[in-house]
Amino acid sequence: MHPAMSKNPALALLASDTARAQEAAEHLRQEHAFVPLAEADIAVVLGGDGQMLHALHEMLDADHVIPAYGINYGTVGFMMNKPKSSRPLDERITRAKRLTITPLEMIATLGSGKTETLLAINEVSLLRETRQTAQLEVSVNGKVRMAELFCDGVLVATPAGSTAYNLSANGPILPLTSNLVALTPISPFRPRRWRGAILPDHYQMSFRVLDPDKRPVAVVADQKELRDILEVEVRVARERQLTLLFDPGKTLEERIFAEQFQV
Q1: How far apart are CA 260 and CA 56, in angstroms?
Q2: Secondary structure of the chain in HEC code, one letter for each residue
Q3: Model pTM score
Q4: What's the pLDDT tens digit per position in 125-148?
Q5: Does residue 4 have a pLDDT over 70?
Q6: What is the per-residue pLDDT across 207-216, written as a single tens digit (0 to 9) for each?
Q7: 252 with 246: CB under 8 angstroms?
Q8: Residues belonging to the active site
């Protein structure tokens, strides 16, 4: 039996430092015995989507990936459950539905020649560092698809992240089970009419900075940033899957689907 479905899974409590989340955490500590994350079967995350991303990255970095049940004490809470419920926490977790999401792996080559590897749950974004537009070469599966893209930047978004920065950049909303990623330009200048692409998630993408001295570019994987970039490779890291837990009828998949009908 999976730990999340066992009668008494060990719970870790990860709360943001906001007053609302800390107050809720103190209340939960009076009702439950929590353990350190390294000893837990399930992580209970209090805060907003930023706190959930932070918690998931903490698990990935520690190589201790367990299901996460989020409770919204932030702003949007797209990846979280509602804070108010007539059911106790243990029962909510037992009844929760599982949803698997898969992060992106980004390998960046820096001007020093060093390479850095980061994971992104929402998106990987390449962004201009100065007033000069970025000048990028875009390749897919080793083939150059765009020899020159002048833009403020470009991003690769997962389905889970397609309603975040990607949507603000006029990218498409991707159903969670679509096995696709969105390749979306940010304020493209040339070619001006390019609106991006939707790619199968087994494709690999690479971006080469064509004029790094005059037009420097940074890369951001969720909340982590690297500067002085020469090249970035992006792929879906299927071996690093994550599990989110949602109250019945309130899954992230349903929320992403419903977002397509918002006006």
Answers
A1: 26
A2: CCHHHCCCCCEEEEECCCHHHHHHHHHHHHHCCCCCHHHCCEEEEEECHHHHHHHHHHHHHHCCCCCEEEEECCCCCCCCECCCCCCCHHHHHHHCEEEEECCEEEEEEECCCCEEEEEECCEEEEEECCCCCEEEEEEECCEEEEEEEEEEEEEEECCCCCCCHHHHCCCCCCCCCCCEEEEEEEEEEECCCCCCEEEECCCCEEEEECCCCCCCEEEEECCEEECCEEEEEEEECHHHCEEEEECCCCCHHHHHHHHCCCC
A3: 0.89
A4: 999 999 999 999 999 999 999 999
A5: no
A6: 999 999 999 9
A7: yes
A8: 49
Cis amide bond preceding 191, omega within 30: yes
Residue with tokens 């089970």: 177
Give per-residue pLDDT as tens, 31-68. 999 999 999 999 999 999 999 999 999 999 999 999 99
CATH for 3-102+241-259, options being 3.40.50.300, 1.20.1740.10, 3.40.50.10330, 3.30.1360.120:
3.40.50.10330
Q: Tokens 């696709």 sit at which residue?
A: 180
User: Tell me, which fold does domain 104-239 have in CATH?
Assistant: Tumour Suppressor Smad4 (2.60.200)
Give residue-wise pLDDT tens across range 62-99: 999 999 999 999 987 889 999 988 899 999 999 999 99
